[in-house]
């Protein structure tokens, strides 16, 4: 779908201004609440909540602790997005009209996820993170289908959503594995190693699906691949040391990370050559 110059030059409406202000204020509340709930200001860290069900050593699919530093970059991107979309000249931007409410919903769901984990509900956290993943998937589809508008704003939006979706995709796998472990069916009769390799293969397949669908929008799929490779790579590193050493899972995670990293590059180059 192409964006016409008439659409870009259309004046902002009162609904646009309400959206801009609401997304900006909502982002401040959501990001602040998420930071507080995750222990950034002295509270209980997420890794220690729910009896450590989501810690770096809870399951073979848990990323090692340094992986979670990506949240700093995601929060920064979301903050910049919130400010950029609130600029007066961005009110009528059709791409921002299409995704801003959804981005706000994703931030609120992320804050809710942290609150649910702090309430020790691992099952509830799975429901919320899958809802978050679905919302980010909607944003991804819209960004792929809509043409770029302003270069800077489009780059900020694409990069931030790409990193966010890529990381949440990996986190959803780890979160689900943690819930199954808490429920006592973490291995589903397959054994921890086999089950983990199957899930990692599913993660690699998901990264390929993103890359194929968004092959004409590398500004989105490359950040997705980077974030997924980051998360999967830290799962691999986490299985090479500590209490849950498993070389088979580590190898599978590193292979999945390589797939996630290369898939968007290959599909983008292939799409361009055609």
UniProtKB/TrEMBL annotation:
UniProt keyword annotation of Cell membrane present: no
Keyword field: Membrane, Transmembrane, Transmembrane helix
Alphabetized Gene3D superfamilies for the sequence: TspO/MBR protein (1.20.1260.100)
Superkingdom assignment: Bacteria
Segments crossing the lipid bilayer: 21-41, 68-87, 99-116, 122-144, 164-186, 192-213, 220-237, 249-271
InterPro entries assigned: TspO/MBR-related_sf (IPR038330)
Descriptive protein name: Tryptophan-rich sensory protein
Organism: Cellulomonas fengjieae
Upper lineage: Bacteria, Bacillati, Actinomycetota, Actinomycetes, Micrococcales
């Amino acid at each position: 779908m192409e964006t016409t110059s008439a659409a870009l030059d259309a004046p902002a409406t009162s609904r646009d201004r309400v959206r801009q202000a609401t997304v900006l204020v909502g982002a401040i509340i959501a990001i602040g609440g998420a930071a507080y709930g995750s222990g950034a200001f002295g509270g209980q860290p997420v890794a220690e909540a729910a009896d450590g069900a989501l810690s770096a050593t809870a399951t073979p699919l848990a990323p090692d602790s340094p992986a979670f530093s990506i949240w700093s970059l995601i929060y920064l991107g979301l903050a910049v997005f919130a400010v950029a979309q609130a600029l007066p000249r961005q009110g009528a931007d059709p791409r921002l009209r299409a995704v801003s409410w959804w981005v706000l919903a994703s931030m609120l769901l992320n804050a809710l996820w942290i609150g649910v984990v702090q309430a020790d509900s691992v099952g509830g956290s799975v429901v919320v993170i899958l809802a978050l993943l679905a919302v980010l998937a909607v944003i991804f589809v819209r960004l792929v289908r809509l043409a770029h508008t302003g270069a800077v704003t489009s780059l900020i939006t694409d990069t931030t959503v790409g990193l966010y979706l890529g990381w949440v995709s990996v986190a959803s796998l780890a979160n689900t594995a943690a819930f199954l472990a808490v429920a006592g069916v973490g291995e589903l009769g397959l054994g921890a190693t086999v089950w983990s390799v199957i899930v990692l293969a599913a993660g690699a397949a998901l990264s390929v699906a993103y890359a194929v669908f968004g092959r004409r929008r590398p500004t989105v799929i490359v950040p997705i691949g980077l974030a997924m490779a980051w998360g999967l790579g830290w799962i691999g590193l986490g299985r090479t040391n500590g209490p849950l050493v498993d070389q088979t899972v580590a190898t599978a995670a590193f292979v999945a990370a390589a797939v996630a990293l290369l898939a968007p590059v290959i599909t983008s180059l292939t799409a361009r050559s055609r």
